[in-house]
Amino acid sequence: KIHKASLSKTALIIQPTLEYHQMYNDAWRMLRDYFYDPNMHGVNWPAVHDRYQYLVKRCAKREELDDVLRHVISELSALHCFVYGGEYDLPRVSASPSLKKLNDVASLGISGKSKSEGSGGYIITNVHNRDPDFG
């Protein structure tokens, strides 16, 4: 016989900081275990883990964790390694209908827009400030 359980007096406790630390460790470990070069391009991979781990506690939202993970991955100097969303959708790119998602283009730390339709050029509208902890 199936009985229904009442959840009316149940609380769900979410601790993003703990989740972010777990996600950081899992992402670092998966790269270590599945990266095509077992020598990690000569990078001291445990040192990379330690270098960026303290930034995870400063992450207030998932996008900030993704930024830390992108920095970790960049230490490998490898192409085609990406960090993709999770619980949030990627924004659409309006400047180019051929690009479906924002992550179809490289993140350069700038914002821009097309000069004019069909010109192939871009205007830089903003250079984003960097966090001094990232160096």
From TrEMBL:
Its main location: cytoplasm. InterPro entries: ClpP/crotonase-like_dom_sf, Tricorn_C1, Tricorn_protease. It holds the Pfam family Tricorn_C1. The keyword Heme does not apply. Signal peptide: none annotated. Keywords: Cytoplasm, Hydrolase, Protease, Serine protease. The keyword Cytoplasm applies. One of its GO terms (cellular component) is cytoplasm. GO terms for molecular function: serine-type peptidase activity. Residues 16-72 form the Tricorn protease C1 domain. One of its GO terms (biological process) is proteolysis. It is found in: Cytoplasm. Belongs to the peptidase S41B family. This is Tricorn protease C1 domain-containing protein. It comes from Proboscia inermis.
